Amino acid sequence: MSLDQLIHNCKINDTKAQSELYKLFSSKLFTVCLKYSRNYAEAEDNLQDAFITIFKKIEQYKNKGSFEGWLKRVTINTALQRYRHQGVFDIINEDHIEDNSVTIEDDNDISIEYLLKIIQELPDRYRLVFNLYVLDGYSHNDIADLLKINAGTSKSNLARARQILKTKVTDYKMGHQSQSL
Question: 119 and 58 in one domain?
Answer without folding.
Answer: no
